[in-house]
Amino acid sequence: MTSAGRPSKAGDDRILPVTRWVAVFIIPFLVVADVLLYAFPTRAGELFAWAIAPPLSAYLLASAYLGGVWFFLRVATVRGWHRVRHGFPAIVLFAGALLVATLLHLDRFSHNLSFGVWLTLYATTPFIIAVLAVVQAPRDPGIPDAADAVIAGFARIGLALIGISVFAFGAIMFAAPEFAVSFWAWKLTPLTSQVLGAVLSLTGVVNAALLWDSRASSFRILFQAQLLSLSAIALSLIAGRDDLLWDRPMTPIFIGVMVVGLGLYGGFVAWCEFSLRRAAASRVTVA
């Protein structure tokens, strides 16, 4: 505490105004990308940064952006840095991977305004978000909220292992895109393989944080965003079912993983909501 009795900056759990404003700045770009990729996937070469075929790849990238909209909206509005902090390393890795993929495949991109925006955002976002994460890091008090819940060890380890497995698979798609092209559930190019690998990295980085943080309040928003993305992917598989290659074993495997993932993530999000609401109600009753 300071001499005036106010909390010191370290551990005050405050989200700085600059962090909120960066989130507000990013949201419109994600919304526009979602509209373009969902509504006009076959015109991505004209309206987006590059031509994406088949549409299912565009839908999958859009699903990550959809989760990002929710995440950054909450960064801009929620109280408590610890509630969103574990999403920042995931964004850094995702954006950084897309920057690398872009530089490796510049010949695939369109020479239009969308590509200029794409390149500018991915050349700056990973570094800006990384700096914000470092500056904000000491503000996490490291203790549960007044109305919080503890995530059981088996759930934390299980979700972390799922995330790490998905991350490893995404890393293979990014590091060996030609190999991924040969077995994936729909047609890919080396560029779309690396983009999808970057998308898969998100859940791995977020879930790994469960190994050292047991606060339900730290993951409520992040898993809401992930569940939103998973739901969007599930709908995309229905909309883009004609793109699926049913002669490849990866197709039923991917669909099965999606179904299981929806069940697990949906159950975890429901548990977080119930537990945190119950904790809040108990606190009010005691007070």
TrEMBL record:
<feature type="transmembrane region" description="Helical">
    <location>
        <begin position="219"/>
        <end position="240"/>
    </location>
</feature>
<feature type="transmembrane region" description="Helical">
    <location>
        <begin position="87"/>
        <end position="106"/>
    </location>
</feature>
<protein>
    <submittedName>
        <fullName>Uncharacterized protein</fullName>
    </submittedName>
</protein>
<feature type="transmembrane region" description="Helical">
    <location>
        <begin position="252"/>
        <end position="274"/>
    </location>
</feature>
<keyword id="KW-0472">Membrane</keyword>
<keyword id="KW-0812">Transmembrane</keyword>
<feature type="transmembrane region" description="Helical">
    <location>
        <begin position="195"/>
        <end position="212"/>
    </location>
</feature>
<keyword id="KW-1133">Transmembrane helix</keyword>
<feature type="transmembrane region" description="Helical">
    <location>
        <begin position="47"/>
        <end position="75"/>
    </location>
</feature>
<feature type="transmembrane region" description="Helical">
    <location>
        <begin position="21"/>
        <end position="41"/>
    </location>
</feature>
<feature type="transmembrane region" description="Helical">
    <location>
        <begin position="118"/>
        <end position="137"/>
    </location>
</feature>
<feature type="transmembrane region" description="Helical">
    <location>
        <begin position="149"/>
        <end position="175"/>
    </location>
</feature>
